[in-house]
Amino acid sequence: MTTLWFEQALLPTGWRSQVRFHIEAGRFTRIEVDAAPDAGEQRHGSVLPGMPNLHSHAFQRLMAGMAETRSGPDGDDFWSWRDLMYRLVGAITPDDLTAIAAMAFVEMLESGFTRSGEFHYLHHQPTGEAYDDPAEMAFALAVAASQTDIALTLLPVFYAHGGFGGTPPGDGQHRFLTDLDGFARLYERTLQAAATLPDAIVGIAPHSLRAVSPAELLALTMMTKGPIHIHIAEQMKEVRDCLAWSGRRPVEWLLDHAAVDPRWCLVHATHITDAECRAIAARGAVVGLCPVTEANLGDGIFPAASFLAADGRFGIGTDSNVRIDLAEELRTLEYSQRLVRQQRTVLADTIRSNGRTLFDAALEGGRCALADGPALEVGDAADLVELAPAVAAAGDSALDRWIFATGRVRGVWRAGVQVVAEGRHRNRDAIAARFDAVAHRLLVEQR
Ligand SMILES: [Zn+2]
What we know:
The chain is an alpha/beta fold. It contains 14 helices and 17 strands.
């Protein structure tokens, strides 16, 4: 049994002072408040529950910052970025994936994420043939998770078509493709990959309405009782193509044809109408916002103020992992709204500060989307994030100063074990060295 003492902690009941957590076998067994520190007891500062990262493609960390050169007179967009991504990832082996994902997971933990939702579609060999073990690459992700101690929600992706109406897949998509039978085998083995970790969860991810037929979508939703994640309405081209195919916008179509409920995470949902905002909120589905990637890819701006006004739920993801920084994701979400509305503190409610409103919402939505229970309660995994100290950072001000000013995390505990101290993961050096070697081979030698 271990104990950890903090000056203040953000519990489900709000900020409480002088909090001592009792931890056994990685879980909270007792939480004391207003508990003066014992003589000689180590004293920590402000602590938050660990945040779920509800949408990541860990392998894309390899190409972070590699797509910032203009490729032609018309400029670049999501689709030209995707072509580059397909080229760069073509050669990634299972060992490479472990090295790349471990680097991403280290950076997630260092920024305050304690669980990653891996929207995982890099299934097959570069030729497109399945590995002998269909979940070889899911096992590679599980190894990276165990090297870093991050919690994992594995979301194996079903990807069968290149566009709406079952158009054939394109070059570069061979490593992703399965039919329903192949996916069933992949899913069963993914459950076994998850079972190698202490608290992994498995769901299913139909890639997008482009990649999945209506009949396949129905079959997939029957295969799991876990979370269901789907990319949707990220790009205006997708909205136009969906209208041409079905006469409905992507979110309209999905809500009409699938039993969307709180198990569902609608990733991006960037281009939605006010009516779609209200309809998603009414179903209780979580919208998976990835503000830094959405900015990097030029996706557009999610109508967050309208969505929150409709009592919509959201969580935060790092998606392409071009940057891995929880505070920056929350700040970018708020700043995008300020720039559009020419106002400040757009997403704050009238009771809580801006940082507190953003954090509470992302925590609740993220944990729902990754099928994790409520945070910082007895029985829950002891996942804690201590903020770097800042002057006058008591209560919600600690969150505001972190999100809008310092961005720095000091300590992270995963299942009761300290994995980040003074902002650095305990295995950072070895993992960064392996990542650098893989990146050099894939980005320099093989180009
Ligand atoms: Zn994505």
